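Suppose a classmate hands you a notebook page containing two proteins, each written out with its sequence and a corresponding row of structure tokens. How would you begin to make sense of it? This section walks through that situation. The first entry is reproduced here exactly as it would appear on such a page.
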Amino acid sequence: MTDMGLVVVGAAGKMGRTLMRVVDATPGVTLAAAIERPGAPEIGKDSGLLAGLAPNGIAVTDEPVEAFAKADGVLDFTVPAATLAFTELAAQARIVHVIGTTGLSPDDEAKIAAASRHAAIVKSGNMSLGVNLLAVLVRQAAKALDADFDIEIVEMHHRHKVDAPSGTALLLGRAAAQGRGIDLDAHSVRVRDGHTGPRPRGDIGFATLRGGSVVGEHTVIFAGEGELIEFTHKATDRVLFARGAVKAALWGRDQKPGLYSMADVLGLG
């Protein structure tokens, strides 16, 4: 089988550059195109040099239609509005779309699900093996421990992150809710301020921290009477997300159209 040609969108960002370096280093894949928003100063620059590699002759462009038509997949860690546009193009081209974008609304999620009727989409709030394994453990713990154990999720990211709670925190919250057999939206607490009263039994709380250059730290706490159980994952390098995304693209190449998660890719479903 020929190498899988992958388009990196948001190529000039930190994650985009990391993705291009991982694609360059991974057997079985090759960079098909590097896409940036119209007007970006990186347009026309060599994408290899942009990623800190040797020149590759692939100039950064703001025209994804032609690029998608010639590619096998797209790696997308951008913003919701851009992801929806790329989702439509990927569905039209029938290529694999790997989505690591967070902050998607329920309406956005519905549009992505509709597009998955035409192409394989792998979407996850976190592409790392460790976090997806953690989600399995959290789901099992929530199922084993009754509501006498309060669940709190604490996450911290760098100062530039724009959405909260993080996609990973929500992924872990959904895992806990599944374990408990409850609806996360109906039983989550995102903000506490002022005189809040006692903690409602069975709710799942989220605490969001932002600062510095933290790549991502997440802790799920099961707090019972006289004991605490904590599950923690710390990401120290964005490269682990990029490796997971490339792995997801290679896996998705052999799948029928549908909406998949990293748990599917890793056989943890």
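The notebook's second entry, a different protein, reads as follows.
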Amino acid sequence: MKNVAIIMGGYSSEYKISLKSGEVVYNHLDTNKYNLYKIHILSEGWFYVNDLNQRFPIDKNDFSITVDSNKITFDVVFNAIHGTPGEDGLIQAYLKLINIPQTSCNYYQAALTFNKRDMLSVLKPYGIKTAISYYLNQGDAILEDQIIQRVGLPCFVKPNKSGSSFGISMVKETAQLTAAIEKAYAEDDEIIIESFLKGIEVSVGVIKYKGETKVLPITEIVSENDFFDYEAKYEGKSSEITPARISEEEKDRVEDVAKRIYTILKMDGFSRSEFILVNGEPFLLEMNTVPGLTAESILPQQAREAGISLYDLFDNAIELALNRNNY
């Protein structure tokens, strides 16, 4: 049987959500087919955590563990880390160096998509529509009038490299801008300020499934808050409607753009892209390459709608990783 390390946690504000995602993966894979190991990757250290909650340190030289004098190595890693180091390319590069396949995309794609402004810049020449944006690095002068002149009001201030909507603010008047920028800097030293797009927010999962690139049923996001923030995502302050209440023409357009982006970026594994439909045209907000896998998460909802069980979804990801040619 293959030894599967399910990595979860991470170093960002998203680590608690990642631990939940990892538990869901652990509970839905076949223990008759795989030996499953929960691996917590945390700021304080990397550990194998057994069912008795005992912790055993990871040897980072070869990503192995020693339990009762037995050394255990892994055939494949299931990546369930949201944020750094699982979604920004660091863990992918490390695993590639020591020749262990993993379920998410390759290190370059992870790093690129985790950096919102770099990804949007790469996709622009392909005709992918995006919001008007203004970039800031920590220490840059905050020229409020110049920013508002470019992006208008209301606008969104976001950390450039962060997920789960941590540090995002909707700014409705100029007086709120500096506080919103400081809030975003608490998460990242780079910021993206974007124009407000009025339309329907949708989330689109694209995965490799049984060797094919597959677009999952589209989810419409209806938030009780001003936007799809952390509360809306994880504390029930939103409705997620799958399939989305959009026309067949809009559906085809979003599916086409989502699949094109996946192909252009040479993606692998799971992805979930967020769009705003403005008069039927999809505008890309961001892409997540390690999307949430909890019961509340969008990608599992979409897979269910497509008739794909969590077992099939996760098992397929492991099979693809083991058979991928880039290791």
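A careful reader of the second entry would note: Confidence is low (pLDDT under 50) at residues 228-235.
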